[in-house]
Amino acid sequence: MRPSGRNLDSIRTISIEPDVTKHAEGSCMISMGDTKVLCTASLEDRTPPFLRNTGLGWVTAEYGMLPRSTNTRMRREAASGKQQGRTVEIQRLIGRALRACVDRSALGERQITIDCDVIQADGGTRCAAITGGWVALRLAVNKLLKAGDVVSDPITDHLAAVSCGIYAGQPVLDLDYAEDSTAGVDGNFILLGTGRLVEVQMSAEGATFSRMEMDQLLNLAEKGVSELVAAQKAAVA
């Protein structure tokens, strides 16, 4: 029995509320169970120096957790003067994943920055950030299309992410914190709407895993991502 009472192949309740901020070109609040992440997309008519005069755009991301997004207060990273390694790794992952579904030539020489701020954490924050980040990106690009600033849609597909793992000896979908903190195997799966893989992060957290178990987790991830894509479609409809 999972702590939440969910079936092994059930994701948490998903909610994606679009256009939650006034100033960002695209925004949403995504909730995956008790994990809540505010995602905003900001358009800039510039690119990083290494892309100047290439005709290519850029999508990047920043990620952070509010001090009381967890059980005990965390010190703001700004107070220590530097980001933690985990933060840097996650925001690079988000940007890398989102670029996989963007035609940077069609985007043109402009940059879209996706900011992902964790309001409340209960496992799977990076997956929620990627899934919600796509919605914010989609809404920002819609404004470019409506204004005629881009000729063709630079977003080539949906993109979503979900965690899977082996908890109490069983493959399970969409781990919450109670499962994530004690899972023998933990993995994050990022897929396009077509089902093609963008990135897989898997590690043994106390027990090794077999090829068969990895395939079982991938099958669960495909099911979970299909449900997340359906939620994305409803949010941007």
TrEMBL record:
A Pfam family recorded for this sequence: RNase_PH_C
Q: What reaction is this protein's catalytic activity?
A: tRNA(n+1) + phosphate = tRNA(n) + a ribonucleoside 5'-diphosphate
Residues in Exoribonuclease phosphorolytic domain copies:
11-140, 160-224
GO BP annotations of the record are: rRNA 3'-end processing; rRNA catabolic process; tRNA processing
Question: PROSITE patterns, from UniProt?
Answer: RIBONUCLEASE_PH
Task: List GO molecular-function terms, semicolon-separated.
Answer: 3'-5'-RNA exonuclease activity; tRNA binding; tRNA nucleotidyltransferase activity
Question: Which residues participate in phosphate binding?
Answer: R86, G124, T125, R126
Any idea of its EC number?
2.7.7.56
Supply the alphabetized keyword list.
Answer: Nucleotidyltransferase, RNA-binding, rRNA processing, Transferase, tRNA processing, tRNA-binding
The similarity annotation says: Belongs to the RNase PH family.
**Task of the protein:** Phosphorolytic 3'-5' exoribonuclease that plays an important role in tRNA 3'-end maturation. Removes nucleotide residues following the 3'-CCA terminus of tRNAs; can also add nucleotides to the ends of RNA molecules by using nucleoside diphosphates as substrates, but this may not be physiologically important. Probably plays a role in initiation of 16S rRNA degradation (leading to ribosome degradation) during starvation.
NCBIfam families, alphabetically?
A: RNasePH
Q: How does it assemble?
A: Homohexameric ring arranged as a trimer of dimers.
Q: Under which name does UniProt file this protein?
A: Ribonuclease PH
Q: Which organism is it from?
A: Roseinatronobacter bogoriensis subsp. barguzinensis
Gene expressing this chain: rph
